[in-house]
Amino acid sequence: MKGFFLTIEGVDGAGKSSHMERISSCFQSRQYDIVATREPGGTPLAESLRELLLNQDMCLETELLLMFAARQEHINKLIKPALAAGKAVICDRFTDSSFAYQGGGRQLAHHKIQSLVDLVHPDLKPNFTLLFDLPLEIARTRMVRERNLDRFEQEQEEFFERVRSTYLERAHAEPERFVIIDSSQP
Ligand code: TYD
Q1: Nearest 5 degrees, angle CA 67-CA 68-CA 69?
Q2: Is beta strand 34-38 parallel, antiparallel or unpaired with respect to 88-92?
Q3: Rounded to the nearest whole angstrom, what is the distance from the C-alpha of residue 7 to the centroid of ligand 1?
């Protein structure tokens, strides 16, 4: 595949979405065509699944399956065609979020998540991942200040501690793919 696949990760309140625009213009200045997208979401069906995921109460396994159902659509309809056309795909969250939130946060077994990776995208991995990392007290303050909280944002501190530490473990296990960014600054 000719394009470039960049993903942006971090706990809620880490400020990653605010950096999407600047990151996109950085790629544009290097003559890339950009596709900026997000998960869950990125296609009409995946955006409908996002609505359910953020707002409806559901079983943990249902949540995991819907995340990957949305991802399957997103990959086939948007990500792969864009990469094949040589574009830079900049994605706000991808499968590292599933390991961090459904694995770390919700404590679903790693092998269950990995089996969905094997089913949905055995042949696709981000070229590069920016992990926006910060102490949870700061993330919580930003989140609460912002708006109505969704189903994930309403979780307790221990949930986010597990999400953050799963992210950091993954980043340390694959230092060639991840860059950890200290996003505690205003
Ligand atoms: P996000 O777009 O960061 O939320 P917001 O628009 O509020 O900034 O992500 C939505 C939520 O989905 C976020 O709390 C993390 C969660 N999520 C998972 O739990 N697993 C996943 O695989 C993905 C992609 C997201």
Answers
A1: 95
A2: parallel
A3: 13
- Nearest alpha-carbon partner for 31 in 79, 83, 90, 86: 86
The string of pLDDT tens digits covering residues 73-130 is 999 999 999 999 999 999 999 999 999 999 999 999 999 999 999 999 999 999 999 9
For the CA of 38, the closest atom of ligand 1 is: 2
Report the pLDDT value the prediction gives residue 1, as an integer from 0 to 100: 57
**Spatial CA neighbour of 133 closest among 51, 34, 15:** 15
Q: Give the number of the atom of ligand 1 that is nearest the alpha carbon of residue 101.
A: 19
Q: Is the CB of 167 under 6 A from ligand 1?
A: no
Phi, psi of 122 (to 5 degrees): -60, -25
- Rounded to the nearest angstrom, the distance between the alpha carbon of 112 and the centre of ligand 1 is 19
Size (the chain), residues: 186
Q: How far apart are CA 59 and CA 81, in angstroms?
A: 32
Q: Per-residue pLDDT for 54 more than 60? A: yes
Query: What are the tokens at 96?
Result: 């590292």
